Amino acid sequence: MSMATIEGQAAPPPAEVQSFTVTLLIRRFDPEKDTEPYWQDFDVEMYPTDRVLDALHKIKWEQDGSLTFRRSCAHGICGSDAMRINGRNRLACKTLIKDLDITKPIYVEAIKGLPLEKDLIVDMEPFFESYRQIQPFLIASSKPEKERIQTVAQRERFDDTTKCILCAACTSSCPVFWTDGQYFGPAAIVNAHRFIFDSRDEGSQVRLDILNDKEGVWRCRTTFNCSEACPRGIQVTKAIQEVKQAILRGGNA
Amino acid sequence: MASSPSGAATTPAPTITAPKRPAGTLYRGREGMWSWVLHRITGVAIYFFLLVHLLDTALVRVSPEAYDAVINTYKTPIMGLGEAGLVAAIVFHAFNGLRIILIDFWSFGTKHHRAMFWVVIALWAVTMAAFLPRHLMHVFGG
Questions:
Q1: pTM for the whole structure
Q2: Does residue B42 sit within a domain?
Q3: B30: contact with A, CB 8 A cutoff
């Protein structure tokens, strides 16, 4: 029955979707050949509903197989393909061509502040090192017989920061992180926030002490680049401010 | 919307605009980042003014005549324009400093930071509009 309805609705043939030529300017770098990164342009035939990742795939599969970038799920969950698109950190798999001004070239380059390895790939290790330092796991002394109970309000308290996919779009958009590689960075603080305000966790004071460091939350200059860059819409600067407030109050209450 | 060589006529206006030129390493931040950049620049400028100001004020301990001589050299149109710039920097730094305090200590500060930035710009414009005519009359009116 339902199949018939769907077929009936699909009867008018879809209008021909117009494709157009898009120019991508990609910042290339091959450590075996180049001393400096350089811009290279590619023309690809795209639909408005395509994503920047589709354009990169088309270039890699049809024009230049040496183009190097990371991507895994291609659906905005794995956090592999954060890159600077038109000067702003975005996930290539979540940026639609129709959201970009295609009368001009689309600029694609690697995220900033992390060591460039090749083309659009950076060394993520400093980023993950900061993440490990804030102890991103449940710290609890009791061994419950069943699940740890939490009220809806208690869960809601840290809901926003559970959405992080560790793509580094926020950390590599932070002017403080670019110049000060020791700064924990927004992503590490977001993931600390996720446990600091979790009622089941007992290690919040440990994490607040870690972040109450010279290179901790006090390095944040509230430029809001991180909140703007986050592909999951996490209010990153707000989370950092909440951690600052918790340190000032001496606890997560 | 009539026609476009690239066929973009059927699509709505882009929500992410293109940069004017290959930006290289420049990150295109928004109000938050530029207010921070301005805060830094005005802060450093004010610091250097204070350094000079401490030195010229300290001259009065050396000799009042030397102090008067130095202060008189400030009464030129170029120094007058410099004073206008100094006041512009201090007014922005002061209002934006209040904005940063609100972001840090007001629970809705992070939500309204962008609106507060434009309020800072508006307050700056109003203050400068009140100050500049009077100041420039002093400098150039003799």
A1: 0.84
A2: yes
A3: yes
Partners of residue A89 in chain B, C-beta under 8 Å? 27
Among B84, B86, B85, residue whose Cα is nearest residue B50: B86
Q: Would the CB atoms of A222 and B36 count as touching at under 8 Å?
A: yes
Instruction: List, edge to edge, every strand of the sheet that includes A82-85.
Output: A38-46, A20-28, A106-109, A82-85, A88-91
Given a contact cutoff of 8 angstroms between Cβ atoms, the answer to whether A92 and A69 are in contact is: yes
Whether B2 shows a pLDDT value over 80: the answer reads: no
Encode pLDDT of A25-59 as tens digits.
Answer: 999 999 999 998 999 999 999 999 999 999 999 99
- Residue B76 inside a domain? The answer is yes
- Is B20 a member of any domain? no
Beta-carbon count within 10 A of A62 CB: 11
In the predicted structure, residue B4 carries a pLDDT above the cut 80: no
Q: How many domains does chain B have?
A: 1
Identify the three-state secondary structure at position A41: strand
Residue-number span of the structural domain to which B112 is assigned:
29-141
Give this complex's ipTM.
0.81
Those residues of chain A that have pLDDT short of 70 are 1-14, 253
CATH number at residue B54: 1.20.1300.10
Q: Is residue B16 part of a domain?
A: no
